[in-house]
Write a structure and sequence with these properties.
- The complex is a heterotrimer of chains A (284), B (251) and C (288).
- The radius of gyration of chain A is 23 Å and the shape is globular.
- In chain A, β1 and β2 form a beta hairpin.
- Helices cover 74% and strands 1% of the residues of chain A.
- By secondary structure, chain B is α/β, with parallel strands linked by helices.
- Chain B is built from ten helices and ten strands.
- In chain B, the strands form two sheets. Chain B has a six-stranded mixed sheet with strand order 6-7-8-3-9-10, sandwiched between helices. In chain B, strands 2-1-4-5 form a four-stranded antiparallel sheet, covered by helices on one side.
- In chain B, a hairpin with a 2-residue loop joins β9 and β10.
- In chain B, α6 runs parallel beside α7.
- The longest helix of chain B has 14 residues.
- Chain B starts with a strand and ends in a 5-residue tail after the last helix.
- Chain C has 288 residues and is an all-alpha fold.
- Chain C has a domain of 192 residues: MetI-like (MetI-like fold, Orthogonal Bundle), CATH 1.10.3720.
- The longest helix of chain C is centred in the N-terminal third of the chain and has 41 residues.
- The two termini of chain C are 43 Å apart.
- The chains are: A mainly alpha (284), B alpha/beta (251), C mainly alpha (288).
- Chains A and C meet through α1, α3, α4, α5 and α6 of A and α1, α3, α4, α5 and α7 of C.
Amino acid sequence: MFRLNPKLSQKLSYALLFCATIFVIIPVVFILFIIIKNGASAITWEFLTSMPRNGMRSGGILPAILGTLSIVSCAICITLPIGVSAAIYLNEYAKDNLLTRIIKLAIVNLAGVPSVVYGLFGLGIFVMFFKLGVSIIAGALTLSIMELPVIITTARGALNSVPYSFREASMSLGVSRWQTIRYIVLPNALPGILTGAILSIARISGETAPILFTAAAFYVPHLPGSIFDQVMALPYHLFIISTQIPNMPKNIIFGTALVLLMLVLSMSLIAIIARLYFRKRRKW
Amino acid sequence: MSDKIKVENLSCFYGKHRVLESLNINVVKNEILTIIGPANSGKTSFLRTLNRMNDFNPDYSREGAVYLDNDNIFEMNTEKLRKRVGMLFAMPIPLPMTIYENIVYAPKRLGVVAGKKSDQDAVVEQALKDASLWDEVKDRLDSSAMKLSGGQQQRLCIARILAINPEVILFDEPCSGLDPISTAKVEESMIELKEKYTIVLVTNNVKQASRVGDRTAFFLMGKLVELDKTGTMFVSPKQKQTEDYITGRFG
Amino acid sequence: MRKIIDSVMETIVFICGILSIVFVALIFGFLLKEGFAFFKEFGVINFITGRFWYPVSNPPQFGILPLIVGSLLVTVGAAVIAVPMGVMAALYISEIAPKGVRDILKSFVELMAAIPSVVIGFVGMVTIVPIIRMTFNLPTGLTAFTGSLMLAFMAMPTIVTISEDAIRSVPWAYKEGALALGATRWQTVRRIVLKAAMPGIVAAVMLGIGRVIGETMAVMMITGNAAQIPHSIFEPVRTMTATIAAEMGETVRGGMHYRALFALGFVLFVITFIVNFVADLFSGKSKK
């Protein structure tokens, strides 16, 4: 059989791998380019701060922005303490037994449940069973369960990166286990936990399927007043105006997409930069 | 002279593997008991049993009893035990905070010191002086403890233990990562400390044992081979194995 | 006092720890509760093997075979594109790219993962869909193939990130041995590294596929949503996820159609459960 010389084969393979890498990252650049190019002109102060008018074909997207912010902030307030506590349990207390293995398996599976199934679940339990109705709180609860495995996993990573010797040193002084966690482990894991939380906020800001039947409304003529209100949400709004409304002005759709994208990407960028920063500054 | 610690028939295991076998040993009040022996002789396991730091290892189990004064330590609350029996590790482990915070950390958490700043200042100053570190760091108490040299870090760790006013201090090869000058300083503070505290020192360095130990115990394969006054043991060991070890024939 | 706080906190974190199990059980339970009522009335076999999904005709037909085929087609198509590309990119990023470049590339991959699926769906609609329609001269660009292409982009970040971890955790000693014997770097990567990292890569692929099966919004926007068994990948299809998302809003709460969608969600849940379980088995293997 014909054989390439190893040097040449290496060069060709490297080129191929490089092309594959480009293929993976080109969509990001492409999506950013298209949306910024077409959407930038729509972004005005008025667009960001006024109500939609004329069947959403003109005016602004303020209710959608506020709706998303309220759902997401509720969701993170619910999921962060639970997720971090669960991570503390798994990392600091849990013994290697059957229960722990089941918990870990449950987390893996929660992470894999499709977002639309979370939507169904949220509809079944929060909207119908607990009679919360289609509301901010029902959507936030649904999203918080969806995000729980991500928070647990990143928080565990952060806790794990605090050297075991710190715990040992602290406890050798007679300091209790919880005090050690509270005063030594958590403060040092905090940057990692917060980075994970910001990434989670970014992720759930863009989620549509879980809030489809639990929180989002096609159109609400007023701003959200309480957590039991149905609200408009940016990703759902983008879905509606890009698929359901005929003769929608293109620049409004692109403008909405740009606002959503900026919200999500700026938070991801903050998280990525924060992580690099804390990694450099780490004291041990 | 009274016994501070009395060990009765202590055996320790990791899983099924026995690392200490039916150990009987005593530690006299205000002495430095040094423990020597080759690697895997069980000396560190023994030390970590004395303040139950081994309890964190799920494979660890033990039999027998250890009495601190007259209390069986295996029946005590571990936090109370560790307040009375402090431990210094082989590598210095300053906590990632300032020098000042390192010292007041445990007293604050244990409720030994009041919240008043002046009380805390006094604790810090006293502990650092007792660990002969005060002069070197008094001007930078608010800088990170991570920035100190290895020897200074180890003395900071000693000061941290002194701040909670223990009765016994366990040293686990405290000089293994230090240069000779830092080692000498740590040894000096140990000798000063035995005025107030009872000390158990595990060391790989036979010469260190001869320099600081009042009595020396030689461990081999999980058994206590010989226990005697340091001077006696180093001049005329009773057991052949001890002689071989301290003259450097093995280990 | 200290003791009380300690045990209270331990109890709290323990409860939070087992909440994950509770949630999985609740999801399973709620889907099954609604789905079971449906299965009893319509029959599991009819449901899974029925060729027609006409939920609002009279009498309604609830055969999900076309939806399963739709999901399968889109998923396989996406995997065929995403798996080789993703693994190659992971190899490049972990083994070949210089350190500075690697961090930049990884950041881009992470950004790609962060883009909301509804944005990807929208961009796909206005760019790829017309291109596909014209290139292949089709009546519509909303096809299974278009969906596969977009989903491949969405699965690649998962595959790249997790494969990269697996490749990087191959001990340096393995590579050193091969390099010392005079193998080129590429030969080492191909024969030694790839082999050693394989369980982790398989886990990455499974997780990527899991993501594709569960993906909803982008799929709903670009696959055309025709509930029929397609003859080729250039025809519109409808996936299980898109069906739930598109129809749930119009059902009568508690009605037959509503329950059928829960039953569909249950099937989806079971499928992703299995996929993730397999992924977990492999990732457990790769850690050893």
